[in-house]
Amino acid sequence: MDRVIEAREVYKFFKGVRAVDGVDLEIGKGEFAALLGPNGAGKTTLVEMIEGIQKPDSGDIRIMGMPWKGNQEAIRNIIGLSLQETRFMDKLNVWETLRLFASFFDLGGKRVRYILELVGLDGKHRARVENLSGGQRQRLALGIALLNSPKILLLDEPTTGLDPNARREIWSILLDLKNNTDTSLVLTTHYMEEAEKLCDHILIIDRGKVLREGGLEDLLAEDQKEKIIEFTLEDFSVSKQAIAAEAPFPVQWNRANGRGAVRLDHIESQLPVFLDFLRSRNLHMKNMECRRKTLDDLFTEMTGRRLHE
Amino acid sequence: MSKPVRYYQLCHLTVAHFKELIREPAVIFWGIVFPMLISLGLGMAFTQKGGIEHHVGVIAEKEASETGDLQIKDFLSRHAEKFSDAENRFQGYRLVIENPQMGNTTFIFTETDWSSAIVRLKRGRLNLIVEDTGGGIRYHFDPSNPDAELAYLKLSKVLEGGSSVQKPEVARKIEPLTVTGTRYIDFLVPGLIAMGAMMSCMWGISYGMIDKRSKKLLRRMVATPMRRSHFLIALMAVRIAMNIIEAVLLFVFAWLVFDISVKGSIPALAVIFLSGNIAFCGLAIFVSSRTANTEVGNGLINAVVLPMTVLSGIFFSYYNFPEAVVPIIRKLPLTLFTDGIRSIFTEGAGFAQTGFSSIILLAFGAFFFSIGLRVFRWH
């Protein structure tokens, strides 16, 4: 596979904090990759170094084999990007904003009309940017990123803060792109659904490091059989000690909301054992749910924290 | 990138900046209407054609019957016209001294007592208090207030001169300077034009830039093949074009209302106006080169703009400042700009008198522009 982005041993420090702490990254042609991690994990810093907006303190980043130094104009012509929370000129309308950015790439009105249709803003082309909804703004930002038919698309939290509908609209535009072009995509997100739905390659990032990477199936494969039982108890006040220490399987117990979770490899044989244990302690379940493992669980296993915290 | 492409984006950048500017309704008010209102207000206040009114408080504490004739009351009842306001709450005398050359002088006399006279004096509703002690007239006024002193000089002459009240002898020796070019409005309008250009550059460019930086728009734009210089050139070009429109409209307004005219060289005026604009555009780029915080930006812009507005002789001559600081004031860019425009307007100056200032302003702008560009933070 052709590599369109390569990063080797990339470090970036901010006032002694390691924002990006030795990251290696390879993205192939047509590949969709997600940088998944909580806020402050270093995703934005990493993606902005790929975008040439920030410079790494050490390490090497190449776009289509070219380092940023000396190739700025060439690289800017082949990448498209959207930054986290960019606001465009409030007083310009959608058409004018796209037209302005198109002029930077020497593109005309025809391309702008195509983009308007692609991101579903053709009905809104005369609306001022200040009057757009959050979802429309993000679609405008995406449209601007796609103006120059980029070989590499870099999106920093393209759906953060959007309602589920608006999020799905962005996803469907990106899935179209995936099916119909050979554009590569790197997106940062803290929504595991987004990474699962769009991307073949997922990098789980925390505190500037890539904790684990691979396809969704690879990441969860080793624990395919493992199921997670989430339950709620009627009696909140059970101490962590009483449950965690004495249960036959490792239990995560949150006394504050009365919720717990237990991981079982062989659900058929192990679930009755666990239920017997609760009964023997005179603990009554209010609720129980069985589900397969998610990226969020994987993240929690590795860091002890959740993606959204 | 080929040449036509560059002009293509420069063109679009210019159009975008221009639309951004004119779609802000406040721009029309603050850039065009507000300077007109200032010139109208100040021009009216300081260019009195209808004559001068002096308000005089009269204190006559003893009744006429005790000491015989009180000089003032006697004078007023013989020469002045008695009047009262619509609701009859207020009684006084009005004495008009006609003078076709200098404009009429009107004295409004109000009978009052000490305490209310002092209150009215503090509020600026009286210029002068006269007290009739029975034996003579005493004048009370603030000697550092030129209006009060003028009222005293005129009134004392009238009260002591008796018969010459209606015909001031001095009138024949006076040649009033009310021709165009010497009035306050002639002094003011060039100053307003210069100040308007400075304000527009400093606030428009600096604030707009800091705002775009804080919105991450600058960062987004330089992540495309956009030329940074084109972005700045378009921004300045739009601002200067707007300033020209504003200045022309203010001039036309002042010409219609106050009959102002340009006595000197129009090309020299155009050159110094452009140079001044470039000077302040450069300064604006420099001021806004680093910060992404609009409040810090606010402070920075004010720190540049306020001292010059006060010192550079916009509203009154800087020769009122201590002699030691005048040479410094004269070197400020706004002073060079204002003095240059004013000398072309009122003294008939041309390139010979303003060319040097134009060059200095241009160099000033180029200097700050290049430093600003070097330290400019796009991200």
Mind telling me which CATH architecture of the largest domain in chain A this is? 3-Layer(aba) Sandwich
Number of helices of chain B: 14
Which stretches of chain B are poorly predicted, pLDDT < 50 over at least 5 residues? none
Element pattern of chain B in H and E: HHEHHEEEHEEHHHHHHHHH
Q: What is the name of the CATH topology of the largest domain in chain A?
A: Rossmann fold
Structurally, the number of domains of chain A stands at: 2
The strand count of chain A comes to 14
Topology, please?
The complex is a heterodimer of chains A (309) and B (379).
Chain A: E1 3-14, E2 17-28, E3 32-36, H1 43-50, E4 58-63, E5 66-67, H2 72-78, E6 79-82, H3 94-104, H4 109-118, H5 134-146, E7 152-156, H6 164-180, E8 184-189, H7 192-198, E9 201-206, E10 209-214, H8 216-221, E11 227-233, H9 240-245, E12 251-254, E13 259-264, H10 267-280, E14 285-292, H11 295-303
Parallel strand pairs in A: 3-8, 3-9, 6-7, 7-8
Antiparallel strand pairs in A: 1-2, 1-4, 4-5, 9-10, 11-13, 11-14, 12-13
Helix pairs in contact in A: 3-4, 5-6
Chain B: H1 3-22, H2 25-46, E1 52-59, H3 64-67, H4 71-79, E2 81-84, E3 91-97, E4 105-111, H5 114-122, E5 128-132, E6 137-140, H6 146-161, H7 184-214, H8 217-222, H9 228-258, H10 266-287, H11 294-311, H12 326-329, H13 333-346, H14 351-375
Helix pairs in contact in B: 1-9, 2-7, 2-9, 7-9, 7-10, 7-11, 7-13, 9-10, 10-13, 10-14, 13-14
Structure commentary:
The complex is a heterodimer of chains A (309) and B (379). Chain A has 309 residues and is an alpha/beta fold. Chain A folds into two domains: 3-221, P-loop containing nucleotide triphosphate hydrolases (Rossmann fold), CATH 3.40.50; 227-292, 2-Layer Sandwich (Alpha-Beta Plaits). Chain A has eleven helices and 14 strands. Chain A has helices at residues 43-50, 72-78, 94-104, 109-118, 134-146, 164-180, 192-198, 216-221, 240-245, 267-280, 295-303, and strands at 3-14, 17-28, 32-36, 58-63, 66-67, 79-82, 152-156, 184-189, 201-206, 209-214, 227-233, 251-254, 259-264, 285-292. In chain A, the strands form three sheets. In chain A, strands 6-7-8-3-9-10 form a six-stranded mixed beta sheet, with helices on both faces. Chain A has a four-stranded antiparallel beta sheet with strand order 2-1-4-5, covered by helices on one side. Chain A has a four-stranded antiparallel beta sheet with strand order 12-13-11-14. In chain A, helix 5 (134-146) packs parallel to helix 6. The longest helix of chain A is centred in the middle third of the chain and has 17 residues, at 164-180. The radius of gyration of chain A is 23 Å and the shape is elongated. Chain B is of the alpha/beta class and 379 residues long. Chain B folds into two domains: 3-46 and 180-375, no CATH class; 52-173, D-Maltodextrin-Binding Protein, domain 2 (3-Layer(aba) Sandwich). In chain B, 61% of the residues lie in helices and 9% in strands. Chain B contains 14 helices and six strands. Chain B has helices spanning 3-22, 25-46, 64-67, 71-79, 114-122, 146-161, 184-214, 217-222, 228-258, 266-287, 294-311, 326-329, 333-346, 351-375; strands at 52-59, 81-84, 91-97, 105-111, 128-132, 137-140. Chain B has a six-stranded mixed beta sheet with strand order 2-3-4-1-5-6, sandwiched between helices. In chain B, a hairpin with a 6-residue loop joins strand 2 and strand 3 (91-97). In chain B, helix 2 (25-46) runs parallel beside helix 9. The longest helix of chain B is centred in the middle third of the chain and has 31 residues, at 184-214. The radius of gyration of chain B is 28 Å and the shape is elongated. The model of chain B has no long low-confidence stretch (mean pLDDT 85).
